[in-house]
Write a structure and sequence with these properties.
By secondary structure, the protein is an alpha+beta fold. It folds into two domains: 53 residues, no CATH class; 83 residues, Orthogonal Bundle (Arc Repressor Mutant, subunit A). The protein is built from five helices and five strands. The strands form two sheets. The chain has a three-stranded antiparallel sheet with strand order 1-2-3, with helices on one face. A two-stranded parallel ribbon has the order 4-5. A hairpin with a 4-residue loop joins strand 2 and strand 3. The longest helix is centred in the last third of the chain and has 15 residues. The radius of gyration is 16 Å and the shape is globular. The C terminus is likely disordered.
Length: 166
């Protein structure tokens, strides 16, 4: 059985809890007021993740190379694999992802899988928006989704793909 590690990172959008095992980061989640704080016991993977997140928030990192792994169904894994392909500073719609993983009729399932993503920011579910270009749900809170998209806009030097406006 793999040992579990946990640590926290203060970010511009709140405290982030990072969990990992001996091989990979397993979750990056925002800490809410009712989140139980666990004692910290970090490892090299967690520390590498924290460093890369700091670089991301400073506008110096657009891609991550820390190992990640989260448990999920085959369909969820397909959706999360598509999320990782969304370039920094770009957005796609749930419909775009649905077409890649099984067809337009899969939009609700894509939304559900997106909502189950446990590796925020690195698996960029915040880059998925409505087909009309509007922001839609985000487990970390809509204000964080908006902040992340504005942050990436600021450092990408490109206009948003779907014409998303703040």
């Amino acid at each position: 059985m793999l040992k579990k590690y946990v640590s926290y990172l203060k970010s511009p959008i709140g405290q982030i809890k990072i969990k990992a095992d001996d091989n990979a980061v397993n979750s990056i989640l925002f800490v809410f007021d009712d989140t139980k704080m666990e004692p910290e016991n970090s490892n090299n993977i967690v520390e590498k993740c924290k460093q890369q997140l700091k670089e991301y928030f400073a506008g110096r990192r657009k891609e991550f190379d820390v190992e990640i792994h989260q448990e999920g169904t085959e369909f969820q894994q397909k959706v999360w694999a598509e999320l990782i392909k969304i370039p920094y500073g770009k957005t796609v719609s749930y419909n775009d992802i649905a077409k890649k993983v099984g067809g337009r009729n899969m939009m609700r399932a894509v939304g559900a899988a997106n909502g189950k993503n446990q590796i925020s920011i690195i698996v960029p579910c915040h880059r998925v928006i409505g087909s009309d270009g509007k922001l839609t749900g985000y487990a970390g809170g809509m204000w964080r989704k908006e902040w992340l998209l504005k942050h990436e806009d600021k450092y990408s030097g490109e206009e948003r793909q779907l014409g998303f406006e703040f």
